[in-house]
Amino acid sequence: MTTPRIAIAGAGIGGLTCARVLQLHGFENVTVFERESSPNARQQGGTIDLHGDSGQVAIRAAGLYDEWRALARDEGQEQRKVDHATAALIEHELPEGDFRPEIDRGQLRDLLLGSLTPGTVSWGLGVASAAPGGHVTFLDGSTATFDLVIGADGAWSRVRQAVSPATPEYTGVMFVETRHDNDERLLDLTGQGTMVADHEGLMLWAQRNSGNHIRAYACMRAREDWKPSNAELLDLYTGWHPDLAAFLTGELIHRPLYALPVPHTWEHTPGVTLLGDAAHLMPPLGVGANLAMEDAAELALAIAEHGVRDGVRTYESVMLPRAIDAQERTNAGLQDMVPERPIRV
Fold first, then answer.
1. CA separation for the pair 123, 110 (Å, rounded)
2. Do the beta carbons of residue 22 and residue 300 sit within 8 Å?
3. Where does the FAD-binding domain start and stop, copy by copy (predicted)?
4. Which among 42, 127, 135, 238 could disulfide-bond with 131, CB atoms 3.0 to 4.6 Å apart, if both were Cys?
5. 3-state SS assignment for residue 291
6. What ranges in the chain are assigned the alpha helix state H?
7. Three-class SS of residue 33?
8. Between vectors from CA 302 to CA 305 and to CA 56, what angle results, nearest 5°?
9. What is the pLDDT of residue 337?
10. Closest of 177, 206, 155, 193 to residue 78, by C-alpha
């Protein structure tokens, strides 16, 4: 029996998880196509807490649970809320009960990459488009046909157009990211996990990553094209404690938040399916990465049990309703977190 040819667009944690689980079940004719030139072409984002009922299930299916535990930070579950004007601690939650250790996204991606058969990822060859029947056109103009094309290529998926006309829409919320290393004042405020502060529609949160690295995010309602300078951002946060304002200094990375319409569904399309943000882009409230890994493992296991055609149908019948529920919850959560303000910037 010929092993199915499976193409996975995107070497993020979803695509890599899917490739790993497929290979564990004997599907060696799997290739991950990634437009970036190498694993180190760009930084891989902040820290991820793997949930017991989703991300951790997937990491077990990938046979990497022990390796993940060796890297994961239990102390990263600490949650701190401080007063915006005084920086005084007003809420404090230490790790207990709900077990969701943190791991840097880059560390998790490297773990998954290292588990794959050498040569699985084709670097520098991104997917430009896909079509029903498993037909792929690459960014260099070349084409190929596979038994299955899996779109794990994120928010602006090129594969999505093969099954759905939907495109991401701006949520009205802007994140402005800053990064800080070995700053004792900011490390003390952040604690071992996440710190938040909010006031009148403005929010600030900071997350400790490994190696005394902090990623901070100023959150507000804003125009999609708003790109504040440091002075403009600090002016917006006038009245906040100087120690909190210090998180807003340095290089600013502007991140308007997008989401797919809800519900986002499609008719089963032979030879093509989606997972992760390509299938259900939603506000980044701690769910997306876990869902991407859960999608990936479930898709691979369904293919292993039922074959490509029936496996994809089985996967989609479970994934799509779950995704709609998560999209609705995160959209509501974003509205609660950053409510509408009378004045928009």
1. 14
2. yes
3. 146-325
4. 135
5. helix
6. 13-24, 55-61, 65-71, 105-115, 184-190, 230-236, 242-245, 277-280, 288-337
7. strand
8. 120
9. 86
10. 193
Per residue in 137-192, pLDDT (tens digit) is: 999 999 999 999 999 999 999 999 999 999 999 999 999 999 999 999 999 999 99
Q: Please state at what angle helix 13-24 crosses helix 105-115, rounded to 10 degrees.
A: 30
Amino acid at 85: A
Question: Both tokens of residue 148?
Answer: 């299955």
Q: HSE-up of 288 (CA within 13 Å, CB side)? A: 23
Question: Distance between CA atoms of 163 and 130, rounded to whole angstroms?
Answer: 9
Residue spans of the chain under pLDDT 50: none
Residue 32: helix, strand or coil by DSSP? strand
Is 319:150 a contact under the CB 8 Å cutoff?
no
The per-residue DSSP string of 185-206 comes to HHHHHHTTSEEEEEETTEEEEE
Q: How many residues are given for the chain?
A: 345
Identify the pLDDT of residue 343: 54
The residue written with tokens 């006309």 in the block is 165
Asked if the peptide bond before residue 283 counts as cis, ω within 30 degrees of 0, the response is: no
Burial of 281 (0-12, 13-18, 19+ CB in 10 A): buried
Rounded-to-integer distance, Cα 226 and Cα 223, Å:
5
What whole-number distance in Å separates Cα of residue 243 and Cα of residue 180?
13
Predicted pLDDT of residue 98: 59
Mark residue 300 as left, alpha or beta (left: phi above 0; alpha: psi -120 to 50; beta: remaining): alpha
What count of other Cβ atoms lies within 10 Å of the Cβ of residue 345? 14
Inter-residue contact 197 to 189 (CB < 8 Å) = no
Strand order in the sheet with 202-209: 89-93, 79-82, 194-199, 202-209, 213-221, 169-181, 253-259
Residue 329: how many other CB atoms lie within 10 Å: 14
3 half-sphere exposure, CB direction, 13 A CA radius: 11
pLDDT in the model for residue 51: 95
Residue type, 325: D
CA distance 279 to 237: 36
